[in-house]
């Protein structure tokens, strides 16, 4: 069998580990792997080539994706999806492994439904916002990157007695923000799904800390709809709080870097498992981790609402910041 593999949507550390495992497990089972470049854009353009085992040497520890990734708006149009399916057929590729986030899985779901393309999904997104899995590739690495950066900022925050607003990634998901805030001992966290009226709550909390004698603070802000949201919050906060304030947007630094051991391990496990299942004739699934175990979900589950950060974690950030 010829198996295609692509990475799509935002890149995430650990994608290369998954690519390597797909290729080498396929090789071990007597299948051939083709690399599809730049996600669904490459699929549309027929930009794909055989990806042998040797081409995957020394990629396990590298961030980003050797196949590159892209966003491809045309894929929302059935005419272009038909073209993509025809490209697969012409090349003789019978199944594809899609490494990406919920958008990439939606595309795989519709491709399988409309054209019978056998699809397998591997969760790859630093946001960790997929239904049916407690882990996605890249989240652990991005979390550790953000924590390391904020530890450094805390040194200067306490030396100068400053308040730092630190923006982390997460347009529609506060997973990264909440976990980063907890791991850094932040004063507070603002994130999209936050149940409270977060700005007013933040001001009263910071003012109460000030009165208790706290002279430096870290507040983690999820980027929300537009990157730079922390800037807007900072401008407002300057008028409502006495501490000298600085804003840091961590930005794309969170996407890069060598994947953590856990992202390499799960990339390897998921990559191999995806191929083993395709080899057994299964399709239309994506893999995940639930309570430490490797699990498979029907790809249609990606249409379910995305998980929200547990509210108790956000509250714990506040409780522990005394
Ligand atoms: P992620 O996979 O990280 O969530 P996106 O949401 O940007 O990233 O999705 C990646 C790509 O998947 C999009 O650029 C588009 O090509 C395709 N895609 C996303 N959603 C759909 C959909 N509902 N139908 C068809 N294709 C989609």
Taking pLDDT < 50 over at least 5 consecutive residues as the criterion, the unreliable ranges are: none
The average pLDDT value, as a whole number, equals 94
Query: Biggest sheet, strands in spatial order?
Result: 3-2-1-4-5-10-11
Q: What is the count of structural domains?
A: 2
Rg, Cα atoms, Å: 21 Å
Q: CATH topology of the largest domain, anyone? A: Rossmann fold
What does this protein look like?
By secondary structure, the protein is α/β, with parallel strands linked by helices. It folds into 2 domains: 182 residues, 3-Layer(aba) Sandwich (Rossmann fold); 117 residues, Phosphofructokinase domain (Rossmann fold, 3-Layer(aba) Sandwich), CATH 3.40.50.460. Helices cover 42% and strands 19% of the residues. It has 10 helices and 11 strands. The strands form 2 sheets. A 7-stranded mixed beta sheet has the order 3-2-1-4-5-10-11, sandwiched between helices. Strand 4, helix 4 and strand 5 form a beta-alpha-beta unit. The longest helix has 22 residues. The mean pLDDT is 94. The structure holds adenosine-5'-diphosphate. The site of adenosine-5'-diphosphate has 17 residues, from helix 4.
